[in-house]
């Protein structure tokens, strides 16, 4: 599958976002900061508490749990089950649960893998270390009132060694209510007196806030297409919440339809369309919603069943157009107009030697024109070029995505409105987004959880839907 993008205010293209036939290659086209909601943390914890498929060890008392399997693949797995694409593993797991909840809610730094510079690991003490490192640590005796979404750490025998961690659900003047992993071999709700000597203290999430910031304008955000029922669901801000734009289509009746996004008419907002690989036709619409195509034309691409469709603003005129990558010979073929005709930009590469390469488009240097690049899922490396021609990468870096987030869905877009596209990923295992403003490896600038893991075939889209 491919994901989509469009450049924020500047209108760069969305991307070919659906499955590319037969090759395993995908394309991602290019296209607000907010403080994580404490309510989102509690909601994520409550969701895990209510999830009967993984809210306990299996077999009970074995130590086998989902959350350690999600984060620490080196732990033993003998006798443990698998679910949701995760091999369960045997370990103490209260910290793995708490980190999972924070990560899913979008807490800053909670998505940094253990061993890659992240403070949080599989030990409960790491949550105190997090608070100390980022200035959010509060001891039990400090007078601090614990807030929903905080991590509370415990020392059961007052020996000076932290033994356990949980998530604060709520607190009164006398009592703190929690949701904890590995409490009686399961996820469980508990309550404690706030003067209980077992409580060492509380670490607040770095970007914790009672409410998210309002939607930001002129920046790319996300959404998805559900191929099971042909519906689109798009949101104007980088956070979890109801769709700002949703509509039904009959696209589910077109097997293999490649969903596209882009600013086809240069009005500053992205919209959608599709390519039909069965007959080589494009169908693009200017407004968001169901209706007749604003642009439609035929090509001979049906004779090239492995073609990877891409969209972008190749000539800097403020309008997105289309093109394709041929994985059989590593060539790109791009056209500046929304019609049939010869390529305005074409060049050869050696990408055919990299099976599974994820094709990316975006304006990496802010010059107003989209160019290409790729992500190599075999080694987790990015390779991006600023011009539409063969040559070395202008931007290249290594990540741990190939091992830490197997099957990550790569997305691109202008998340902060600076006129330059950057990258991010969606994790199908837990429905979380992780986006970064700068090109390079590092912690996510935006992260949040969704319930999209329940729709494993969802096609992830990015674009500036409101164009404001």
TrEMBL record:
Where are the annotated coiled coils located? none
Q: Which organism is it from?
A: Sphaerisporangium aureirubrum
Region of interest (Disordered), residue spans: 173-237
The protein's name in its UniProt record: CHAP domain-containing protein
Q: Which Gene3D superfamilies match?
A: 2.40.128.340, endopeptidase domain like (from Nostoc punctiforme) (3.90.1720.10)
Q: Where is the Peptidase C51 domain?
A: 90-182
List compositional bias (Polar residues) regions by residue number: 173-196
Superkingdom of origin: Bacteria
Q: Which Pfam families match?
A: CHAP (PF05257)
